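ok so i was messing around last nite and threw this chain in just to see what happens. nothing serious, just curious
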Amino acid sequence: MKTEKSLGSPGKQVAGFIAKFDPAIAKLTRNCRSVLRQRYPSAIELVYDNYNALAIGYSPTERTSDVVFSLAVYARGVNLYFMYGRSLDDPDQLLQGSGSQGAFIRLADANTLDDLKVRKLIERAVKRQRPTFATNGRGYTIVKSISAKQRPRRTH
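result:
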């Protein structure tokens, strides 16, 4: 059994999780993560290397239920997932998915995060969040779980 110390720092662990994906998906994930870390520097990243996907949630606390949005990384693409997306005001009808609570936007590239309509949707989610992101300080990364069994991370 691997101990937490033998797995390396959370940053190294996440880099390893991302490296399992095809280079284009890995690059998109790193770029999107960089944009979100710059935009929300006090956010705590909650990372779940699950069976279906790698999920990197952005939260004001260490509680999963407080995650505002996350990057959901799959072998075929990356989504910006809103935990409570179905209750978000979405006048531009950007949100996809058939879930009763969560909804997502497919990220063709990191520039999607700079699209004004997407930025407004993210800001609506952030403004609604309680507790809120800290106005100062630096966030950190916590690896919450690593699934022993995982779907293939590469399409080839």
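not much to say yet. The longest strand covers residues 44-49.
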